[in-house]
Amino acid sequence: MKEAKYLRFCMLLFVFAWRPLFAQESYCKNLNFELGNFTNWVGYTWLYSTEVPTINTSKVAGIINRRQTIITDTTAYDANTGNALRKVPSGYRYSARLGDEIISSDSNPRCWEQSLRYTMTIDSTNALLIMKFALVLQYASDHTAKMEPRFKVTLFNQKGDTIPDCANYDVYSSSSNVKGFQTYTPAASAGSPGTNNPVKWRDWTTVGANLLKYIGQTITVEFMSADCTGRYHYGYAYFVAECHPLYITVKYCAGDSNAILTAPEGFETYSWTDSSGKVVSAAQTLSLPDPTEGAVYSCTMTSATGCTVSLHSTIVKYVIKTDFSSYMLDCRSNKVQFTNLSTTTHGNLLYNWNFGDGNISTEVNPQYTFATSGMHEVRLALSNPPSSCVDTLTTQIESFSPPLVGISGDSTYCPGLSTVLKAYGAYKYDWSNGSVSNSIEVSAPGGKFWMLGHSSTGCVSDTIFRTVSLEPDWEFLSGSDTTFCVGDSSILKVTGGAKYLWSTRDTTSSITVKTPGEYLVTGSNKRGCMKSIKFNVTEYQLPNSDFDLSASTLNSRHNQISCSSAGLNDVTYLWDFGDGSTQTGSSVQHTYTLSNAILEYTITLVATTQYGCTNTSSKTIDVVPFIPNVFSPNGDGINDVFLPQMDLQIFDRYGTILYTGNTGWNGTWHGHVVDPDTYFYIVEYKNKNDKLQTRKGYITLVK
Prior knowledge:
Layout: H1 2-17, E1 41-47, E2 60-61, E3 68-71, E4 77-78, E5 85-86, E6 95-98, E7 112-121, E8 128-138, E9 150-156, E10 169-172, E11 181-184, E12 199-210, E13 218-226, E14 235-244, E15 249-251, E16 258-262, E17 269-273, E18 279-281, E19 285-289, E20 296-302, E21 308-314, E22 320-321, E23 324-328, E24 335-340, E25 343-344, E26 350-354, E27 360-361, E28 367-369, E29 374-383, E30 390-399, E31 406-408, E32 412-413, E33 419-424, E34 428-431, E35 439-442, E36 447-454, E37 464-470, E38 477-478, E39 483-485, E40 490-495, E41 499-502, E42 510-513, E43 517-524, E44 530-540, E45 547-549, E46 553-554, E47 560-565, E48 571-576, E49 582-584, E50 587-591, E51 600-609, E52 614-623, E53 630-631, E54 647-651, E55 657-661, E56 668-669, E57 672-673, E58 677-686, E59 692-701
Parallel strand pairs: 32-37, 39-44, 46-52, 53-59
Antiparallel strand pairs: 1-2, 1-7, 3-6, 4-5, 6-14, 7-13, 8-12, 8-14, 9-10, 9-13, 11-12, 15-16, 16-19, 17-18, 17-20, 20-21, 22-25, 23-24, 24-28, 26-27, 26-29, 29-30, 31-33, 33-35, 34-36, 36-37, 38-40, 40-42, 41-43, 43-44, 45-47, 47-50, 48-49, 48-51, 51-52, 54-55, 54-58, 56-57, 58-59
């Protein structure tokens, strides 16, 4: 009975001492590692071995890599559980791991023990400590309990003594009195002793600790894991923690027909009873259609460690109406006093003022100095614990400070255009040209203008002056070639601007175009004044460069070639005969000096129009041996040898071979000149492709 009264007293204390939960209180900051580091946590590491007492060490404060680790991969699974355990629980960005999950052989012996401690002062806003943890403990049947991998959660008071609370948790890998463990047996691997031993692992478990009776005291929670003290088996744990108020949330707001009661998370079982003691639900949330106001419901919650907490809630409808007023404190400081006019039917309100510039306040009637003068959008958001009902009001309010009233806009106008001067920082304005709007348009010839700003309460700013003049002229130049030949392109280029926009939507100072037509570019200087240039791009056709040759081959007796093209007007023709000689004209002749070393020549014609467009064509002419059909070996020095320097065979009409060789036939056989007659020859030579060619025919010998 005394405990129930104490809990009711704490609930009343909570209502009056409630602090806003828009962010975690400073003493709960980073309790769930939301900063991604160990801020506000203290790490300890030590060695303890039952086999080798000489390696036992005292606790050393500090975070040590692999002993205390922040887990950042929210999608990662633990391989030592068969990839069944997620390293970071759902809904969290980080978790902490105590111990080393690496199971390969290690240069350091096992038997590490490590812990992390967090200390906070308890009040009604953090009286519920939520702890979530998951364990991976390798089982060793040949070990005593104290030699095995271990995980422990302990609460300490401000003196450092252990609090004998049911939230404390201590389990070894062989523990059979704690439910919820699963078994996974990894495959053995070389160099990893004992990895084929079964792993006892526990999925993410949530435990809630009721700290209401420690309000005003400093409490420390410690999470500890230990490897096997026999140095051969591993054990480690993942965990996160949170602090919350310990109360039942009520959602029964204006317009609701159902009341929804939600007990704190972190407990394994929930039991709701009505005022008669009848059990009505075993879920964390209780929904009550058309509830009776004043009805009392109780919830008994039991954590995974056997902790039991009972809380009570009375059904009342929370109707919030948000309202506030404001007034400027003076005509110079820009300070505004806000007066809260909000109401609720039950409980107390929590205030969250948002001044529209990133700053907030949780005061009931805040006074705020704005950074800018004029109109501001201010929002007041209300919450009404222990209900989850909220209400928000956003409105425009005014502040005033003469130094913060001014004129914005350019001090120049572009030729033929205008510029806009805009006033800021006041409720209304008077301009020298008689305008009372918040802006005026200024064009040629410009001039000197003044403005006065007024608040809605009669405050007046100093006189503010602004001179507007014509923007100085600027050069916008082009240097482009607006013609190109088929298959080529043209570069259009401008200079002098700060920005450019082409009709092609390009924004560079130059563009490459491959299509004829009209192109427009608009450039602007730093002030924004614009000029435009139009380009008319022309595409010219390529000339015809085809040509004809008078022969397809050359030899020592026919070594002159005639070349002819179409001969168009306004087209020049340049011939390259492949032997270092060139000529111009539409039709040309060329005589080659032939040698046995060159077997072909490439004749190239380059045709060029008056616009510089060129086209090129080439043809190859082969050099072949000249074979006469008559020769006279009479010793006169003319035509005395037939086909010298070629592989040659000579036959008479009876098939007798008269000559074989490559020095040429002189008309003799066995030293005697043969009779005048017709003889058969076979000659072999290599062409330009180094392929062997054979020609056969008849030669007539005359004297």
